[in-house]
Specification:
By secondary structure, the chain is mainly alpha-helical. The protein has one domain. The chain contains ten helices and six strands. A two-stranded antiparallel ribbon has the order 1-2. A two-stranded antiparallel sheet has the order 3-4. The protein has a two-stranded antiparallel sheet with strand order 5-6. A hairpin with a 2-residue loop joins strand 1 and strand 2. Helix 3 crosses helix 5, helix 3 packs parallel to helix 10 and helix 7 packs across helix 8.
Length: about 260
């Protein structure tokens, strides 16, 4: 398998690139090649169990911590694809299990299992969500509130998305894709989501480009995507980082193009 980690995009009709860390690249390629359904079920449940340790700061080994972040990155991509195809009705209008963490030094650089906490509007204190329409459960809390059958269905959707991701990675490895402007394509995806009333996916996507998207109204989130120059600045000034936001958005764009060409959307 090619050790390709450089991805080509268009910017103002000029070819540009961004690089993905080879360790992460090989990790994604290995998982999509070697995980069967039974292995993935174990992988998923193992990752969810690691949340307890992570939340209580009990993952002190750096290798294990890096493993946890890579696992969450992988699941975030599968979740994104599942949500975009409306394959995860178990989540309702929640943003799901994995969240994009707030950036440090202006850079979005990790995914974690969502702790399902919010800032109380009255007390300004952090507390758990209550599961109401306005306070959806997310992450570990959301998953454990689902019935056993629904939990199984969620895992199977994630597992099914591996098939799509594997094919997209082959295209990326072999440079078998038509280059595109990811900023323009992201705007097209948002336009599509609006036309299909995919509010939950807009909420998710806003977290890629804003640190406190939870504080914004739906209309304010939509407005974020209308400003091409704003998005362009985030991309090229490393708020949207190579190994995370750029990779996820790139995969989402390719997935969108694939679904259009296969007439599945």
């Amino acid at each position: 398998m090619t050790d390709t980690s450089e991805l080509y995009i268009l910017d103002n009709l000029q070819t540009k690139t961004f690089k993905v860390n080879n360790k992460l690249w090989n990790y994604l390629n290995s998982l999509t090649t070697n995980l069967n359904t039974n292995k993935f079920k174990y992988y998923f449940k193992k990752t969810m169990s690691m949340y307890i340790q992570f939340k209580s700061n009990n993952i002190t080994n750096q290798n294990k911590l890096s493993d946890y972040f890579r696992r969450c990155q992988f699941l975030s991509i599968l979740q994104m694809m599942g949500m975009f195809t409306n394959s995860l009705p178990q989540f309702g209008t929640s943003t799901g299990i994995i969240k994009i963490s707030p950036s440090k030094d202006g850079k979005k650089n990790c995914c974690i299992i969502d702790d399902s906490t919010i800032i109380d509007k009255d007390t300004n204190e952090i507390r758990d969500t209550n599961g109401s329409i306005d306070e959806h459960h997310r992450g570990h809390r959301l998953f454990n509130m689902l019935s056993t059958d629904y939990q199984e269905d969620v895992i199977l959707v994630f597992d099914y998305m591996i098939h799509y991701l594997k094919n997209l990675l082959v295209f990326m490895n072999n440079k078998q894709y038509i280059m595109f402007d990811p900023i323009y394509m992201m705007q097209q995806i948002v336009h599509y989501c609006v036309s299909k009333n995919m509010v939950h996916f807009i909420h998710y996507l806003a977290s890629e480009i804003h640190d406190t998207s939870y504080s914004l109204s739906y209309e304010e989130k939509l407005n974020l995507f209308k400003d091409y120059d704003f998005l362009h600045n985030l991309w090229y000034n490393n708020f949207i980082t190579n190994n995370h936001g750029k990779l996820r958005i790139f995969i989402l764009c390719l997935f969108y193009i694939y679904l259009i060409n296969s007439e599945k959307i």
